[in-house]
Amino acid sequence: MTRIALLQTTTGIDPDANAATLVDAIGEAAGGGAAMLFTPEMSGLLDRDRSRAAHHVVPEGDNPVLAAVREAAKGSAIWVALGSIAVQRADGRWANRSLLVAPDGSIAARYDKIHMFDVELATGERWRESAAYAPGEEVVTARTPLGLLGLAVCYDIRFPALFEQFGRLKCDAIAIPAAFTVPTGKAHWHLLQRARAVEASAWVIAAAQVGTHEDGRQTFGHSLVVDPWGEVVLDMGGEGPGLGFAEIDAARTADIRRQLPSLANKRMFHTLGGK
Description:
7 helices, Nitrilase/N-carbamoyl-D-aminoacid amidohydrolase, six-stranded mixed sheet, globular
């Protein structure tokens, strides 16, 4: 068994305050016996006003939130899957970047969100992530106390090909940090998380933003841990922030893969065109 912690939070527009929340959570997670802490998408800054946010979007090496997390991880000797932060790329565009911080404070892996959240919902909400952010292009995995961990971010969950690749790579767990909207969360959050766990025969760990944020948006919460059978073993609800703990059982993964070897049974096939 490996104990993990999930931070569910209502990230705001002040990076210093957000960094303090993360540092506190790292200490609490380590004190609670967790080997790893998982945080939501945009843990360092959540601000839909891009003109205001631009001042805080800097290259990875200059990001004060990341620096604080690295120092705290080293001080507590804990892994931190920093769900994502906004960073400036060398070409001037932004990346929605997930970072895996090792217990010595080094960066073990980095993943730039591939799928951009460009949608218009029936509620009137309109989001154009691609207007500021450049999509990533690489599937990223890393060795952790949970085994092989696949890195994804939020809207990625709607694109099965990415998770098929995680399955091919035999990932033991997949991190899907998020800032899901309330309408899409109510409709699809649990459904999609459970489906991704089942199809990859892997644990899914989804730390989420929750509540009403300083920039006016509302997020769904319900940070989840789902086992490879699709069973929800932790649901932190949608009421407010908090820190949750769960036990990841590698034997459970092996048992499910023996019972239902869908990854081994997978076959390639041809599609015939219609007349």
